[in-house]
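User: I'm putting together a small comparison set for a docking exercise, and I want a reference complex before I start. The sequence is below, and the ligand is adenosine-5'-diphosphate. Could you produce the 3D structure with the ligand included, as structure tokens?
Assistant: Of course. I'll restate your input first, then give the structure tokens for the complex.
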Amino acid sequence: MLPRITSGVPGVDNLLNGGFPEHRCIILQGGPGSGKTTFSLQFLYEGAVNEEQPGIYITLSESPEEIRENNLASHGWDLAKLENKGLLKIVDARPVIASKDGLIAPNERLFKGELLPFSHLLQLVVQNITKAKAKRLVLDSLTVLTMQYANRFYVRQGVLGLIQALSNMDCTSLLLIEDLAEATGIPIELAVAPGAVVLRYERKGDVMTRSFQILKMRGVKHSLQLYHMEIDDGGIKVFPEEAAITK
Ligand SMILES: Nc1ncnc2c1ncn2[C@@H]1O[C@H](COP(=O)(O)OP(=O)(O)O)[C@@H](O)[C@H]1O
Ligand SMILES: [Mg+2]
């Protein structure tokens, strides 16, 4: 059996025979508000608190301050404390920098003058993993990263390179993406990544419901069912006994 790493999300490890396959890149896909950021932080938080495994969170969306504030308020996760202990590093990789006097500018350090797309970012990621001896990594999100490039061929090279480079590290990565079906069909990252899970947040009658699905997981026997999922003060829970309401 492939070695596993715990997901940190109650219910999920049962559905994966023990957790995510270790050292791999897993795509975490879902629309706005579906719980991607929460799921991926829970993966890092529980790994750090329960197993003392250092984690890295690369953010291209919310600022590090917002991430700390929101998750302390919503779930009581003290991320700053983990950062002080060297068990978590939040890396600000937002493509645009805004200064206090209102000026905005592209973050040249990360995204300009590259021979290959994302090469500076990838360098930063690899350096951080090595330095922190990180076992867990989150990229929030691959969609924001790839949106900055007009040339699709160039972007595909970057995505393939990123997934290959991360697969060679002693670290399990969650790569977040927003949408399943782009105009051109299946996003390349879903085709090449060894695993993908989908979070859904949908209207059923007068309420919104959440569900969790394993779309693919190479080398793992898994169910094809959609499962009921909830978010509350403790974070995310998946209910392996409860099929999601699909009608
Ligand atoms: N303590 C809580 N109780 C109930 N729901 C919560 C709580 N904290 C967060 N949420 C819900 O989780 C959502 C956050 O999802 P998030 O992880 O940011 O999604 P995404 O990253 O996919 O956009 C919020 O919009 C809110 O609906
Ligand atoms: Mg998010």
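The domain at 4-198 is CATH 3.40.50.300 (Rossmann fold). The chain has a mean pLDDT of 91.
User: Thanks, that's exactly what I needed.
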